[in-house]
Write a structure and sequence with these properties.
Number of helices: 6
Distance between the termini: 107 Å
Number of domains: 1
Largest sheet: 7 strands, mixed
Helix content: 25-40%
Number of strands: 7
Order of helices and strands: HHHEHHHEEEEEE
């Protein structure tokens, strides 16, 4: 009787061990890692959004001021102070308003005040050229709620460059004392406003940014305009229109 029980116990152990061995041969089903959510880039958002509606100069300026007053400074090593951001919002909104509702004399007054010096003398030909170029932006559809502040230089250190093709105008000597971000250790930002403009060659609509560059004048506590332009982030062979300073 005792030997019979021993044989049964041994048989049970062999059965259990064999079952465990078989289970070890069955591949385990590991859980697949969840796919990480990748947020689209601002450029992808720009190119994928529906066409915005045209805005008047006053409406666009007011909306831009409100948008930039709370917008973060992308690429900034530290958050932009409220005073700097509010000053930028005020100046950029005025700059946009004068583009959509062109006023050459008022713009030169602002450039003189913001730059802290007399601007280069203007001729009648300069005025006509500026007004003619600006008139092409009068009914530009804008996506103000997607406007951004992007830091290009921080205290003379290059942070980021414009991506895509850019048709830009640079304000150099004659429009203020700040001209060289590296040598003068400047902080320079772009205010980027999504817009729909027309390709110069085909006249087809294209999505782009209206860009206004400003440098912070520490001694005068004002943002000095450094230039402007139209940026096409699509990587295509579009030809963006030129923007007057």
């Amino acid at each position: 009787m005792l030997n019979h029980r021993v044989h049964l116990a041994l048989a049970l152990l062999v059965f259990v061990a064999g079952g465990a061995a078989l289970l070890s041969l069955v591949p385990s089903r590991s859980k697949k890692p969840e796919a990480r959510r990748v947020e689209p880039s601002p450029d992808a958002v720009l190119l994928g959004r529906a066409a915005p509606s045209p805005l008047s100069g006053a409406d666009a300026a007011s909306l831009l001021r409100a948008r930039l007053a709370d917008a973060p400074a992308e690429g900034a090593p530290s958050p932009m102070t409220d005073s700097l951001r509010h000053a930028l919002a005020d100046q950029a909104s005025q700059r946009l308003g004068l583009l959509l509702k062109p006023d050459y004399d008022r713009l030169r007054e602002l450039l003189r005040a913001w730059g802290g010096s007399d601007v280069v003398p203007a001729t009648d030909a300069d005025r006509d050229l500026w007004l003619g170029t600006a008139s092409g932006f009068a009914d530009t559809p804008l996506d103000i709620d997607q406007a951004r502040i992007v830091v290009r230089w921080d205290n003379g250190r290059l942070i980021s460059s414009r991506q895509g093709r850019s048709n830009s105008t640079t304000l150099g000597k004659g429009y203020g004392r700040l001209t060289d971000p590296a040598k003068q250790r400047l902080t320079v930002v772009d205010v980027l406003i999504p817009a729909e403009v027309r390709d110069v060659r085909t006249r087809k609509p294209m999505r782009a940014y209206l860009a206004f560059a400003f440098a912070w004048d520490q001694t005068r506590s004002v943002w000095q305009p450094m230039g402007c332009g139209v940026i096409d982030p699509s990587g295509s062979d579009n030809i963006a229109p030129s923007m007057p300073f």
